[in-house]
Amino acid sequence: MAETPTKPYLLRALYEWCTDNGYTPHLAVRVDDRTRVPREFVRDGEIVLNISFEATSGLKMGNEWIDFNARFSGKSHHIEVQVSNVLAIYARENGQGMAFPVEERQPDDVVPEDDALGDGAGDGVEELEQLDSESPVGAQPASQAGAPSLVVSGEAAQEGGVSAESSSDGSPDDSPGKGGRGHLKVVK
Hints:
11% of the residues lie in helices and 24% in strands. It is built from two helices and nine strands, in the order αββββββββαβ. A hairpin with a 3-residue loop joins strand 3 (56-61) and strand 4.
């Protein structure tokens, strides 16, 4: 029998750590044809989702899928994300969390940003309005939400691994940078 990956267990543990400490857990997610999220908030194939208790209902963090209901611009939507598509989980307030290695995309996995929700097969969902600042779920591009920026470099690039982008000023990886957020480290 195949061994269960550690990623879903780490996601659940960090979610619990965030909530126990009063932080707001966010997921940075790679969007593909299996991901069900509002596409107009997808930027560069990624989206950041607030998965706090206050922003979601019916949150289920399984070993293969994370799904929940959330409101975007006042409309309720069912969100589904494959665990393999989660790029990072972190606390909004301080940036502490964990980034995960990026799995290679298959060409048929990429979905244009203007596609409809889900599989686009007439699910009856109207086009969403622009997310206002009062929405309980802060969906935003990972690049604007303080999510980790991962690059392949050095020996890791030769081995096919991923390493966190290092700062050139010699500061430690976990010290807060601009905006007061610490850098996330890739844990293997």
